[in-house]
Design goal:
Length: 381
């Protein structure tokens, strides 16, 4: 049966915690990692409403974009509004994991999903992150050790290339060795030079997994002294990083692009700063409270930044720089990503029932002069 730890390990692979901002709090934040689960709910935020839904629908795990226990908490009580949801979830045995800013910046994370909905091409991070240090690990084994050694190395974290796992390469050859009187060779005899058929196995390994991988290889290998080589690889920039910038297939007026962006996000209104007739081709995207990406977007030649929240003076800065600024709302720029995440988890774990919260709503209502209230609920059903 799938456990909380199984899903949180997948989340770590999909949105590695190294992508999270230094101030963030990501990972499994609440609950028992070893608990078996059958139902998973995703949501933007753990609130009284989403917690009640999770308990009612018997979820074993909530994957909440925004983390719980983000700031120091000295009391967790059922009669305090800030912690009552946690008390209810704890009593029901519901765990909580949060990928937050790691999910924003992941290869197929929230910002990349926004780019797809906006029809952007040739997307790249606004603030790219250098690839983590990695190594090529080479080990020489007899054919009989091949599967055992590979399984041990893969289990310790070697062999991942992008979205692929258990990647390796094997080259046949011959090895020689001479064991002195203190040895007990697994093949051949000590006291003479032996020539044996071997495989050169190669696999990639990230720096933070290297020690574990080397230990696993040596434990699984039948030789007393396995021959292992470790080669550092050059670090490169990758498709991961904060924010996104891309281009439209054809330039469009800012006003026209703003309306199409609103429709793509399921909105009827969107805030826009800038000349509606100005031409837009390069578009920067930063979900949530992302107006601090404006300066980076300008340096990269963007004609507009779309984000969820922006301060008044940021709009003035955009106007002074001759750049458009579109503000779609925090909820609208991130809720759709939470729905996408539910689909990804369901496809990865077909034995689980996974759904995005049905009770979650944008806390902001938009009041019209007619006296009617309307809510923007992209994805609420």
């Amino acid at each position: 049966m799938t456990t909380v730890a199984d899903v949180t390990r997948w989340l770590e692979d999909f949105a590695p915690s190294q992508l999270a901002e230094s101030w963030d709090n990501v990972g499994l934040l609440w609950g028992d990692p070893g608990a078996p689960i059958e139902r998973v709910m995703t949501c933007l935020t753990v609130t009284a409403e989403t917690a009640l839904e999770a308990v009612r629908e018997r979820a074993g795990l909530i994957v909440s974009h925004h983390p719980v226990l983000f700031r120091e908490t000295k009391r967790i009580r059922s009669d305090l509004p800030a912690t009552a949801p946690l008390w209810a979830l704890g009593r029901a045995g519901v765990a909580i994991a949060s990928p937050h800013t790691a999910f924003d910046s992941a290869v197929d994370g929230i910002n990349e999903g926004l780019c797809r909905r906006l029809g952007l091409l040739d997307t790249a991070p606004i603030r790219p992150i250098a690839a983590p240090s990695s190594f090529k690990v080479v080990v020489f084994t007899p054919e009989s050790d091949r599967e055992t050694v590979l399984a041990a190395a893969f289990g310790a974290g070697a062999g991942r290339i992008g979205d692929y796992s258990e990647c390796s390469f094997a080259i046949p050859g011959q090895g020689t060795f001479f064991g002195d009187e203190n040895t007990a060779p697994a093949v051949g005899r000590r006291g003479r030079r032996e020539t044996v058929d071997e495989l050169r196995l190669e696999m990639i390994c990230l720096e933070d997994r290297l020690s574990a991988v080397l230990a696993a290889i040596r434990a699984a290998h039948s030789y007393e002294e396995p021959a292992v080589d470790v080669f550092p690889l050059n670090s490169t920039t990758t498709t991961i990083g904060a924010g996104r910038i891309g281009r439209l297939a054809e330039p469009r007026p800012l006003g026209e692009f703003a309306l199409s962006a609103a429709r793509a996000l399921g909105l009827t209104t969107i805030q826009a700063a800038g000349d509606p007739e100005s031409r837009v081709e390069r578009v920067a995207v930063a979900c949530g409270a992302g107006d601090d990406f404006l300066g980076d977007a300008v340096k990269l030649g963007a004609q507009v930044l779309l984000t969820g929240e922006a301060r008044f003076h940021r709009a003035l800065e955009a106007r002074a720089a001759g750049v458009g600024l579109l503000v779609a709302g925090h909820y609208a720029t991130e809720r759709l990503g939470v729905e996408d995440l539910a689909g990804k988890i369901a496809r990865t774990f077909p034995d689980l029932i996974v759904w995005p919260s049905r009770d979650e709503r944008d806390p902001f209502a938009y009041l019209h002069t007619s006296g009617e209230a309307a809510r923007h609920d992209p994805g609420a059903s």
